[in-house]
Amino acid sequence: MSVRAIFIDMDGTLLNASKRISDRNLKAINRLTNRGIKVFLATGRHYEVTAPFHKEIGLRTPMICLNGAAIYEALTGSVMQMRTVQLDDEKFHRLTAENSNVTIHTANGLYCKEITEEIEYWTKVGKIAPSYIGDLRQANYQDVFKYSVKTGGSCPDLSAMFHKEAEVINWKDGFELVAPNVSKWFGIKSLLRAFQINPSEVAAIGDGPNDIKMLQRAGVGAAMANASDEVKAAADIVTGHHEHDGLAEFIESYLIQSYDKANVI
Description:
Elements: E1 5-8, H1 23-34, E2 38-41, H2 51-57, E3 63-65, E4 70-72, E5 79-82, H3 89-95, E6 102-106, E7 109-112, H4 117-126, E8 132-133, E9 144-150, H5 156-159, E10 167-171, E11 174-178, H6 184-195, E12 202-206, H7 212-217, E13 220-223, H8 229-234, E14 237-238, H9 246-262
Parallel strand pairs: 1-2, 1-12, 7-8, 12-13, 13-14
Antiparallel strand pairs: 3-4, 4-5, 6-7, 6-9, 9-11, 10-11
């Protein structure tokens, strides 16, 4: 199969547990770009905590952020495409009132109930503090890209209450809500049209429930060894663990070999 582009998840895929890009992963990505294969990041993160890693790799491609709710231009950081979600806020805040770990990602920054370890990390990496900290019922926010609720455990019964209003992504420790039909694959399709690339010419790699659609619909989908069984079942290939350069393993053993074989003179 001829691959012209790859879409890479960040946490649990590109990054190790220390939230860093290993030398092997970085070299493997550079081998792809040197062969003219376009490399894109497709993440649940917001722009400010995606851009530093995008820059570290040296990419000039657009960034798919917030599970496909927003796509950002590489050099200026301007929004190329956005899709906001509208919930019954009264219901949302009523159901999450007892949970302190609630974050609302908007076009104008983060709104959170309190500072968590994750928020501290985002502030350090993105160098931008939340726009609001406190009782979210009193916050005046708009243009929401993503709601995130960390409950400490899976809560499909709670998240199911929003199925008519939003696309629901259930995690082991909570759930996320984006606009209906929004996913990483939703963002990928827009970029494939812009770059005139066929879905069959695309590789995608990830480890989370927000990666399932892109793994299913790309020409080849690779799941990390640290992914759940549900994610692995959606993929064509299971590669190594993110702590052991599973991304590089996939690139080296599959993409590079396939490219070189297809371009032997």
